[in-house]
Specification:
Distance between the termini: 37 Å
Helix content: 40-55%
Shape: elongated
Strand order of the largest sheet: 1-2-3
Radius of gyration: 20 Å
Length: about 160
């Protein structure tokens, strides 16, 4: 049986098509991870949210006692997350190494400019047009900045900035 060869699509079409589900999952996880100290209280420094897919919040805790405490307060975590607009159906806790939350201020203080400035070689009109295109999605600023860089680099490579 022969496979149908598909035509390449523009990156904007692909992002728009996949962003509805994936972006919603990402934004919900972003809300939970950014509010984790408020949601988990005193055990927040010894635990981290790992993922949030289909209403299942996965958490890693550094000890069995912290995992037990999170399980006992899972009802409160679910209700507070719901008040922030995130629907969580269940909480799953694993025991493991607790890594700092990626993107937290403590990690990026000394590494504030990880990327080269996007102004080099681009007109400000192009940059503003790309920002306006993706800004309607309600993305956090760091994600919006990275997405703009990716979009501009892609279009610069294929020479078709629209």
């Amino acid at each position: 049986m022969m496979r149908k060869i598909r035509e390449p699509k523009h990156i904007a079409e692909v992002i728009d098509k996949t962003s509805s589900v994936n972006l919603k999952n990402f934004l919900e996880f972003y809300k939970v991870s950014s509010a984790w100290p408020e949601l988990a209280g005193r055990v927040s420094s010894r635990s981290r949210p790992v993922s949030l897919l289909k209403g299942k919040l996965k958490i890693v805790a550094d000890s069995p006692s912290v995992a037990q405490e999170i399980m006992m307060m899972s009802g409160r975590i679910i209700s507070e997350a719901f008040s922030k607009g995130v629907k969580i159906e269940s909480v799953l806790v694993n025991i493991g190494r607790v890594e700092p939350i990626v993107g937290s201020r403590s990690l990026n203080e000394g590494n504030r400019h990880r990327f080269k400035p996007i102004l080099r070689g681009y007109s400000t009109d192009d940059i503003e047009r790309v920002k306006n295109r993706f800004n309607q999605k309600g993305l956090p600023k760091d994600v919006l900045y990275g997405l703009c860089r990716l979009y501009i680099a892609y279009n610069r490579r294929f020479n078709s900035l629209k």
